[in-house]
Amino acid sequence: MSSSKPWYVYMLRCCDNSLYTGVTTDIERRVAEHNTSNKAAKYTRVRRPVALAYAEQQENRVLACKREYQLKQLTKREKEQLVSNQNSQYSRQQ
Length: 94
Hints:
94 residues; globular; single chain; alpha+beta
């Protein structure tokens, strides 16, 4: 039995150009929290504003967390390539 809501792995672009990686079931809500709430991660609270740079859907929390771990192991250059590839795919779909 799968959960009713999909999970997402996301990367945020912080004001210092760094990338923050996290998981959520609601990307819009989570990005808003990172920008305005005390529920934001300590990392992003001091690097506001943040903007969504990358997202991918996963079937459940376990898979999302595994993918989050994989992404966190990437170098900054590899993360930037992933963001760039997704953005170029999005542009082609428009």
